[in-house]
Amino acid sequence: MTVLTGPTAGPRVPAARAYAVVTWAYAAGFGVPAVPVSVYLLRRGSLPWFGDLFPMYGGPWSDRFRDEQFVALLLSFLGLTAVVASAAARVRHGSRRGAVVSAALLPVEAVFWLGFALPIPWVLGAARVALLVAAWRRLREPQPTSPNSKEISHA
Q: Residue 137's domain spans which residues?
């Protein structure tokens, strides 16, 4: 399998760059905290609180599943946000395929947003969709490899 290298879409497709930044911020702000929240839950038997406002990831799933199952859901969400962040990097580099993967994963993400009762990702999700739509026409299809293209081999 080979991957073409080339210039990023950033300067030419500002919406693609903005999409990537919003997606990475979302993944860092909501995916990465799943690890310390999981550790806290397993050690103390309860979810940590965000200030004194609400339990983190304390949606309907927190009452329906045993702690170990809930941790599995949290870590699945972390994995999902990692895949979404990776797809965002592809969008940032001008990949239409990355945009398709990103769009296809949004409904899966929404299931987690509902289960964890996460209100902010809905707003970020709407912004991400708008940015993908804005960038779509300027994104490119994967190019076939040619002897003149720079390639990185992944064996």
A: 13-142
Do 5 and 150 touch, CB atoms closer than 8 A?
A: yes
Cα distance between residue 41 and residue 67, in whole Å: 7
Which parts of 27-117 fold into alpha helices (H)? 34-44, 60-64, 67-92, 96-116
The tally of domains found in the chain comes to 1
Domain assignment present for residue 24? The answer is yes
pLDDT (0 to 100) of residue 19: 95
Residues with Cβ within 8 Å of residue 51, at least 6 apart in sequence: none
Q: Is 86 inside any structural domain? A: yes
Q: Specify if 149 maps to a domain.
A: no
* Separation between Cα atoms, residue 94 and residue 148, nearest integer Å: 20
Task: Say if residues 126 and 54 touch (Cβ distance below 8 Å).
Answer: no
Determine, yes or no, domain membership for 1. no
- What is the distance, to the nearest Å, from the Cα of residue 96 to the centroid of all Cα atoms in its chain? 16
CA distance 145 to 17: 25
**Rounded distance, CA 122 to CA 84, Å?**
15
Q: What is the DSSP letter of 137?
A: G
How does pLDDT run across 125-134, given as a tens digit for each residue? 999 999 999 9
pLDDT in tens, 15-40: 899 999 999 999 999 999 999 999 99
